[in-house]
Amino acid sequence: MARLKPGKHQLPTLDTGPVPLVYIREQARKQLLEVVDLRRGKKALVLDPAISGPLGLLDTSLTDLLTEHGVVKLLYLEPGKRLDDPSYNATEPRLSDVRSVLYLVRPTVANAQAVAAQIKSRNKFELHDFSVCFIPRRTIACERILEEEGVLGDVVIGASVGRSVGRWVRQRMDFETCRTTCEEVCPHTTCDTQESLIAEGRGRGGLSPAQPPGEGSGQEMGLGGRVPCRVRTVWAHLHWLSFAKVRVVIKKMSQRTQTDSSSRLPLGAPLPPAPPPTPVALPAGEYCLDMVPYDDDVISLELDTAFYDCVCDGDSTPLYYTAAAITRLQALFGIIPRVQGKGPAAAAVRDMCFRMRRESSGLLAAPPLGGGSNGAGAGGSGFGIGSGRIDRLILLDREVDLITPMMTQITFEGLIDEITGIRHGSVPWQSKDKRAGEAGDSHGPGGSRAPVSRLPLNSTDIFFREFRDLPFHIAIMRLQQYALEARREFGDMKNKNFTELKNYVKDVPKVYMLDRLSDIAVPPAEQVKQQAFHDRLNKEQAIVEGYEPEANVAFIEELMYKGADLMEVLRLLVLLSTVGGGLPRRQLDSLRSEVLHTYGHQHLLTLNALEKSGLLKAAPGTRSPFHSVRKALQLIVPEQEGPAGGGAGAGSAAMDTPSDVSHLWKGYAPLSIRLVETALRSGWGPQLEVLAHLPGSQFDVLQTVDSNGMPVEKPYKATAGASASGGLGTTSSISGTSGGGGVGSSGSLQGTGSLGAGSSAAAAASSSSGGQQQQAETVLVAFIGGVTFAEISALRFLSSRPEWPYRFLVLTTKIVNGRTLLQTFVDPLANEFSASG
C-alpha cells in the first residue's frame, strides 16, 4: 500500500504565526475522513498524484488513519493504466476483491478521461461501486466528459448518484435500496430453493433478462410453477449484475422472516419510488482542499498552473479559487478592513471577493476567531474597521513582477529549491551512508539505487528555521560552526560528568537534525563552487541593471551552444525581454531559431505560448518602462552590504546587520517587495506615475458596511495626523538606510554554542514586537501566480526590523521558481516528443 508523505516527521504547529492556521488543517483533515466514510466497508482510494503531497501535509500518519477508516488499497491515478494492471494488484487485497473504489482527483480534463478509461476497462464480472470526488470544486466539464464516455451512470459523484442505464439506477437506487423495497411490498414467503435457482441460471449459461425464472418452466426449478414475488420483482432490474451478486442477494432475502401480510401490498403491485439519497454535510462530489498551510506564515493553494492558466489560456478559475480562499479566511478571522492591490488579476480577485462577501450570508453572522487585534471583540459583526485579526490585504499579480522569479535565488531555502527542488514542503534526501553505499555498488553488476526518502523542511527544525532566510554563504558558515561544536562536544564525552551526559543525550535529536540539514546542503554547496554559477548570477545582475545588451544576448547563445538546460536558457530570455520591454525583432528571430535548432522544433509550441503570454515579445522601439520603475523604486542597491564575490568566505560585518532586502539578491531589491513597502509606507498615491508603467491598475479601498448593514467598499483616505499605514507609525525610507537589526544579527556567532539555538530572525521579530508601543499590524500578502522562497524570506526580514510594526502572512497560488514557472508553458506534446527522442 502506497504511503503519503511526509511520513514520520513532524508538521509545523501552525499556532505561532500571525494568525492560527491549525484550524484550516484540522478542518481539511476532518473533511477528508468524511469523504472517505461516504462509502462503507473496505475501499480502494485512487489519488491524483498532484494532491498526494498536499494530503501528506494534513497528518504525519495519514496513511494509517485512512486504513482505520476502511482504505485497504491506496493507489495513484495513471493515464492508460487499467484496474487489472499488475502494479495495482501486486499486493493483497487485489483490487477485484474490493467493492468500493473512490477517486480523489483535480477537476481537469485529463483526470476525467483517465477515470472514465479505467471504469470502462473494468472486468464485467467484477462488481465495483465507483465514486469520484473533485478537489477543490467539481466542474461541469468533468461531469460532461464522464457522461460522454458513458460511465456517468456507473459513478457516484460525492454523495449523489449519477445517471445510469436502467430504471432503478435512473431513480438513484442502489441494490440495497431495491432489496429493502422488495421485502417491504412482497406478500409471499422467501424462496427456500435458491440453489435450484442458481442451477437453473448456470444451465442457461447465465441469467437471461428475457426470461426471468418462473416464467415458463417453474417446475424445473423445483418451485411448483410458482416463483416468490421477491425474486420476480427484482429480476428485471438486476439482470445486468453478475451471477454471484444475485446469489448473495437471494441469500439475504431468504434470511428474513415472514412478516404480517396485512401490511404488505398485493401481489404484482408497482414498487413505490426510491427514497432520495441521505443528505450529507459536504457538497456533492467536492473535497474543499483549497488551502494548504505550509508553515506558520505561509498558505498555498497548490495550483501548479495558475499563472499559465491566467496569462495564456485566459482561464479565471485560479482567480476564483484565490477569492474563495480569501473569503474563507475572512469568515474565520473577520473582515479585512483595508485592501490594496496592483495588477489585472489582483483587481479581478478583489471584485470576486466583494461579490462573494455580498452573496454570502455566513459572513454576516460569523464572528472572527479570537477577536480582533485592534481591540474589537469576537462578538462583533465582523464588518467594522479593525474588527478582524487580519488588518490589511495586499494583492499582487505575478504579471506585475516577472523579473524576480527569473532571478536565481541565493537564500538557503531558495537555493535548495533551485538546485534540489522543494515540493510540498519536502526535499528528496539520502543520508551519507546510503550515498556511499550507492557509489560503491554503482560499478558492480546488478547494483540498484537505494530508495530516496523525502525530508520535510519547516519551522519545527530549529536549525532550518534559523538558516532558511539567510544568504546561502552565511548559512553555510553557521552550519559549519554548529557542526564543529557538535564534533567537539562528542570528543569531550570522556570528560563529562553524569549531569552533562544527560544534557548531551537530550540534545542528540538536534544533532540528527543538524546532520540531515548538512546532507541537504551538499548539492547546493557543490553548485555554488562552480564558476558557471557565479557567471550566471553576474549576468542576471547585468541584465537587470541594463548593462551591455549585446553581451547578454551573446551569453545566452553561448549557453545554448554548450547544451545548457532549456529552462535555464528560457529564464534568461524572459528576463532579458521583461527588463528591456521586449527584444529587437532581429535578435528575437535569431534566438527563436537557435532554440528550435538546439532543443528541437517541438518547442515551437513552447515559444508560441511564451509569446502569447507576453513573456517573450518584440520591442516596440520605445524606451523600456522598467528603467523608470528601477530608478523610482530603487531596485538596484549598491553592493556595499553584500558579498564581494559570492564565495563562502566573502561575508563581512555589514552583512551581519543588513538593512535592506537587496542583500538577499546580491544588490537587487525585488519589485514585488518594493511594492509591499510602498503600500505600507505611504500607499500608492506618491508613486502613481511610476505604477502606471506596470501592468494593470492599482487600488486602495476600505471594506465596511452602509447604514443598512450591507457590505460596501470605499476609497481609502488617510486621516489628518495619521500615517498611510493606518496610524501605526511611519517607517524608514525605502532605500533602507537605517541600521536596524535584521536576519543574521547574531554577528560573530558568539553565544551559539548551544545546539538549541533558535532563529535569529524569529528572535529579532519577537524582541521587536515586544518593544513596540503599539501592537503590530497583521498583513496578508496574496501572490496571484506564485511566489518564490526568497520573496517570503524578504517579507520575514521586513517583519524582523524594529521600525516595521508588521507581521506578514503569505497566501499564494503556488511556491515557484523560474524553472517551475516556465515549465508550465512547455506543451505536454513537446515533453513526450523530447522523452521519446
Automatic annotation (TrEMBL):
- Protein's name in the database: Uncharacterized protein
Q: Which residues form a coiled coil?
A: none
Entry similarity comment = Belongs to the STXBP/unc-18/SEC1 family.
Name the gene for this chain: PLEST008482
Query: Which parts of this chain are annotated as the region Disordered?
Result: 201-222, 428-452, 719-750
GO BP annotation list: vesicle-mediated transport
Q: Where is the composition biased (Basic and acidic residues)?
A: 431-441
Q: Which domain of life is it from?
A: Eukaryota
InterPro entries documented for this protein: Sec-1-like_dom1, Sec1-like, Sec1-like_dom2, Sec1-like_sf, VPS33_dom3b
